[in-house]
Amino acid sequence: MSFLSRLREDLTTARTHDPAARGDLEIILNYSGLHAIWVHRLTHRLWQTEGLRTVARSLSQVTRWLTGVEIHPGATIGRRFFIDHGMGIVIGETTEIGDDVMLYHGVTLGGRSLEKVKRHPTLGHRVTVGAGAKILGPITIGEDSAVGANAVVVHDAPASSIVTGIPAEARPRTPEKKKPLVDPVTYIDPAMWI
């Protein structure tokens, strides 16, 4: 995918996920989560190049200082990834993130082990993670799942789950049912009050 095609895709993703986005120039200049993702693409390539890991790690730390988003250069991130209000995001070295994933501020994708193994989470495609959530260890959050704000997740969650609580528990994600604005059984017409 060309640089310009990827940039267009990033801008479209930002507009899709943030109703406050007013235009491409505003997104390019002001979206720190997007800035962190752009630099991560460079640092990830450097990380995979023999002898450039220190450069990659140093550049990722400068980006952390500038954006408030810490993404380890070893993390693998899919397409159309979006970070909304990026401050406080931490993404560990062995994290794997699928396509169309969205994180809100304060999310940690962290480890629970000091061993040099896969120690960070894997997020499937189309996962949304709420503000302040902590997903810890080499666990998998299945595709089309949502993790609630401030959840602490330490166990796998199957696809199409809602994951909430401390410690978090997964339950099936059901399609949203539209409720009528007014319950026709208990509604009393205000005109009848007169």
From TrEMBL:
Gene3D superfamilies: Hexapeptide repeat proteins, serine acetyltransferase, domain 1. The keyword Zinc-finger does not apply. InterPro entries: Hexapep, LbH_SAT, Ser_AcTrfase_N_sf, Ser_O-AcTrfase, Serine_acetyltransferase, Trimer_LpxA-like_sf. GO terms for biological process: cysteine biosynthetic process from serine. Pathway: Amino-acid biosynthesis; L-cysteine biosynthesis; L-cysteine from L-serine: step 1/2. Its EC number is 2.3.1.30. Pfam families: Hexapep. GO terms for molecular function: serine O-acetyltransferase activity. Keywords: Acyltransferase, Amino-acid biosynthesis, Cysteine biosynthesis, Transferase. GO terms for cellular component: cytoplasm. It catalyses: L-serine + acetyl-CoA = O-acetyl-L-serine + CoA. The keyword Amino-acid biosynthesis applies. Belongs to the transferase hexapeptide repeat family. This is Serine acetyltransferase. It comes from Rothia koreensis. The gene is cysE.
